[in-house]
Design goal:
alpha+beta; binds flavin mononucleotide; single chain; 43% helix; 227 residues; 4 strands; 4-stranded antiparallel beta sheet; NADH Oxidase
Length: 227
């Protein structure tokens, strides 16, 4: 077996360092750095090498316009994603969802039951957590679930490539709640499903929202061997 030039330990370090950033500095990422991240991320595999992802990336006033429009839409309420959100999380999935939610609330000092503070933190999604950029990811409707699956790989590769380039990021399904707004504002054709946004920029490392880390299940919980 030929050894990869990047040892598994180094790859693991990169994955361990990446986390979802929920407070960004406002300074933009230079375009050559964004291009380098994209060129690395697009090396992931896709079925038939279709590479079905498209990303619409905002900077400067376009990010401000997006932020403003999303915050207004979120304050008005409503929910209209191109792909239905899960109706509920059950069992271990619900437990993990709660654990990471409470870890965030604890980090930013939100008490259990403080609905106003929870709502304010939720709104941070639509403020793009202060990020200078947002990449809105879409897949062709014609490729169905497998096209979306390929794009999931792109999300992972983008966030890891960003981490390797010193750029923080967070995938955000929350933004897909306002798919009609995103189609119109960003001129994303209606024959594509909007999957999520990825807000990115440089981390505000001093912000409490960035002070916690999530855990992962043991192998026993997700692997079944058939020897
Ligand atoms: C497809 C996808 C959508 C996500 N959507 C949101 C979101 O809308 N808001 C949010 O705060 N985090 C969102 N996240 C971040 C997850 O909560 C986070 O990845 C998970 O808790 C694991 O934490 P880590 O990324 O810090 O390792 C999303 C992650 C993925 C992969």
């Amino acid at each position: 077996m030929s050894r990869s030039p990047l040892a598994l330990e180094e790859f693991d370090t990169l994955l361990s360092q990446r986390h979802s950033c929920r407070a960004f500095r406002s300074d933009p990422v230079p375009r050559p750095n964004i291009n380098a991240i994209l060129q690395t991320a697009q090396k992931i595999p896709s079925w038939c090498n279709a590479q079905p992802w498209k990303v619409t990336i905002t900077s400067g006033t376009q990010t401000e316009d997006l932020r403003q429009a999303l915050m207004e839409a979120a304050m008005a309420g409503g929910h209209d994603p191109d792909i239905a959100f899960p109706e509920r999380y059950e069992g271990e999935y619900q437990a993990r969802r709660r654990t990471c939610g409470w870890a965030l609330y604890e980090a930013v000092g939100i008490e259990k039951g403080d609905r106003a503070a929870s709502a304010r933190q939720m709104m941070e999604n639509f403020n793009l957590f202060g990020a200078p950029h947002c990449a809105v990811l879409s897949a062709p409707k014609s490729l169905g679930s497998y096209g979306a699956m390929d794009c999931g790989g792109f999300v992972a590769a983008f966030t890891l490539a960003a981490q390797a380039a010193g750029v923080a990021s967070i995938p955000q399904a929350a933004l897909a709640s306002y798919a009609p707004l995103l189609h119109e504002l960003l001129e994303i054709p209606l024959d594509r499903n909007i999957l999520c946004g990825i807000s990115f920029g440089f981390s505000d490392t001093t912000h409490p929202a960035n002070s916690f880390r999530t855990e992962r299940a043991s192998l026993e919980e997700f692997v079944e061997w058939r020897d």
